[in-house]
What we know:
This protein has helices spanning about 1-10, 10-20, 25-40, 45-55, 60-70, 85-100, 120-125, 175-190, 215-225, 250-280, 285-290, and strands at about 45, 75, 80-85, 105-115, 130, 140-145, 145-155, 160-170, 195-200, 200-205, 210, 225-230, 235-240, 240-245. By secondary structure, it is an alpha+beta fold. Strands 4, 5, 6, 7, 8, 9, 10, 11, 12, 13 and 14 form an eleven-stranded antiparallel beta sheet that branches. A three-stranded antiparallel beta sheet has the order 1-3-2. It is flat, with a radius of gyration of 28 Å.
Amino acid sequence: MARKNSEINPLLELASKYTHSKKISSRVFTVVYTLAKEMRFGNAHKADHLKDLFGMPKQNMNYYLNKLTEEGLVTQQGAGFYSMTENGKRIYDQIERIRGKQLIRIEDMRVTYEITQGVGHLISKHKWKVNPLRNGNTVGICKINTRTVRLITNREQSIARLEVIITKVLDVHINEAYRKAVDEANIVVWELSPEVEVSDGIVTKQPEIAIPCPIASALLGNIGASQIRTNKGIMNRSKGRGADFEVTDIQKAQMIVDMPEILHDTREAILRVEDTLRILRASSFWNMAAVPFSF
């Protein structure tokens, strides 16, 4: 178990060495983590490119790269070129797996766009799997930039809608995850041919929002279940993910995220009330109030 823990937090431990303090600077950890993320895939990276990426002086970037090299996570290949070692890649992948369990997940969001021009061009440019509907409309499905899209048209193709399906997005914050999912759908549309014109996108299917939740973990563990369904949402334990509370309403999702803080504040408020009552009981005012009045 000790070995596993040492592999989960190496970047965190490394960042703590740079701060000369027990408290780890969020900027330092962000630089170390983003460096590792940037170097995980692809060929060797030049120090000048990494310096420009972070917008920091070359001396500062060399400092981080030297530290990562000393730890065996990065190796230098020629003058000014660095790449991640196999050990560094293995550790980074382990961190990403752990991190993924702790992030909020957006699933199955659908963003729809009205096609105002170029329907025929869009149909001819891509390979569609076409399915006719009973109402006379047609649904075509294909992949555009790795994303599944559905094209819905009437018989005359005078009305057409493009639906982009975003299967999964991860982030620390609900609103950021939601925005990233919409942005990914917009990118698919922006990269269509210039002959195709579309309206602004509208979220036509609210996604499932999965929030890692210790309360869900405790409840599922107590009854030995993998899922609990309620009228407010679903508590679910999935393979490789852990226990989540799943809802489709972004406001409910935010309430679940805020739940630990709300419980903490409630506990603090109760403790303050108890302290006040304790003081009152010990005071002469309380003793006088307990004596019945006589007339």
